[in-house]
């Protein structure tokens, strides 16, 4: 890696539940001068990752927010690819996978000989690729975590899937970038809304936490995305983007 930046954030997929043509569900690549890791690995994300990198030792692992398929559907194929990288000598180590250990059947399904699978817990701190990651349990239909990634005073918070909750604001406070779900909007039928937030609630969260920029994420397949930005902007005065317009952030 030649260029030194504090944190580079690439949004590889952003659809909730299932991908749209040419796209992918949840997946974010974090790059530092010390390596790379993925947050979530939903349907279509692995192919997008290969546009940005390979599986040499620079690739350190994956944090899975929760074990719904739109957040981990590609993990099995990544395990095959890690196996291949070890076999052909482009890699000589396992990848680290952090995930909740429930639902038990899904936890069991992500165990693999070339993965070092570690259990996420509320409040834990870990370090990966030279970045500090703080883990926060959020409100979803199954066990689910948000991540705050910090390095040299720069920060990004990854916050999906969760219902709106003012008690989460302290965790998000002052982040340079908030990647926040907006699964529900006026007129959408994509989701029942249970365990999720609307575009307006994403705006309220960004405003209350005083973040530098809001990126709406985990978008509904039937959403009017420009309209969703306007709705979020009714609550938050700062810059609002969606990954269809900006997918790379240098922090
Ligand atoms: Zn989801
Ligand atoms: Zn989910």
From TrEMBL:
Superkingdom of origin: Bacteria
Pfam family, one: Lactamase_B_2
Entry-linked SUPFAM superfamilies: Metallo-hydrolase/oxidoreductase
Gene3D superfamilies for the chain: Ribonuclease Z/Hydroxyacylglutathione hydrolase-like (3.60.15.10)
Metallo-beta-lactamase domain mapped to chain residues: 24-204
Coiled-coil region: none
GO molecular function: 3'-tRNA processing endoribonuclease activity
Protein name: MBL fold metallo-hydrolase
InterPro entries attached to this UniProt entry: Metallo-B-lactamas, RibonucZ/Hydroxyglut_hydro
